Amino acid sequence: MRLSAGALALTLSAVSAHPARHSNVKDVDCSGPPAILSYHVHIVYGSNNDVQVAEALDLLAAAETQFAPYLGSDCDIGYDNARLCLITDHNINGQSYGPWPSGEWAFFVPVPYYQLVVPWMTQHHGNLSLLVHPNTGCENEDHSIWALWAGKPWPLNMEIFTPLTQTNEFNETRGDSDNPVCMADQQICGTPDVGPQLVCCAGLTCSCPPTGNATCMCT
């Protein structure tokens, strides 16, 4: 369920932008650089600016409409969900948390959805700030040297991260069931009005029906 303006934000770990799901031994070499397992796409805005808060919520509604055929249910943690989803681990109506100095909302974006989400967000973020960063487990580097900003960059609180140290994504592998790199059999890969948009796995084709409103599927 979407958090309301009066809801309490989730209390987050002091070392993570989102709660870690795994606690196995650390196995990522952050100087590698390591494999990109997935992405987060963030919209950052002034939480004390009513105009920006309204713009951020309007953009969120527009993005949910745009990506409706592909969106899974909201995710309450920001990692390893195998689907495109809105992250609802905090109050999106203006309350800051983690490394964010102000208001923020985000999508969890598996690798095959990058080409669907990032171009649209790049052209529609308007006056708001857009941050795209990979999820490798190395949260310090993910949010700094490997991050991409469009619009005004915001100074993040990087003190909650440790440089060259894995702080999330433990025991995860690029291309596993939680971190796909392509769309599997019978997964949605496009819409009839646009055509194929996501890459199907080897041996599969994104097939769109010639008529009707049915979505395109990997077969």
Distance between the termini: 33 Å
Q: Which topology of the largest domain does CATH recognise?
A: Alpha-Beta Plaits
Number of DSSP strand runs: 9
User: Biggest sheet: strands side by side, in what order?
Assistant: 2-3-1-4-5
Domain tally: 2
* Order of secondary-structure elements: EHEEHEHEEEEE
The first-level CATH class of the largest domain is given as Alpha Beta
Structural class: alpha+beta
The count of helical stretches stands at 3
What's the pLDDT, averaged over the residues?
87
Shape: globular
What fraction of residues sit in β-strands?
15-25%
**Low-pLDDT stretches:** 3-15
The named CATH superfamily of the largest domain: DOPA-like domains
Rg, Cα atoms, Å:
17 Å
**Helical residue percent band:** 10-25%
What does the largest sheet look like? 5 strands, antiparallel
Name of the CATH architecture of the largest domain: 2-Layer Sandwich
Provide a descriptive summary of the structure in words.
The chain is of the alpha+beta class and 219 residues long. The chain folds into two domains: 38-160, Alpha-Beta Plaits (2-Layer Sandwich); 188-218, no CATH class. It contains three helices and nine strands; from the N terminus they run βαββαβαβββββ. The chain has helices at residues 50-66, 114-124, 139-142, and strands at residues 38-45, 85-87, 103-110, 129-135, 148-150, 188-191, 195-196, 206-207, 216-218. The strands form two sheets. It has a five-stranded antiparallel β-sheet. A four-stranded antiparallel β-sheet has the order 7-6-9-8, with no helix packed on it. A hairpin with an 8-residue loop joins β8 (206-207) and β9. The protein is globular. 37% of the residues are buried.
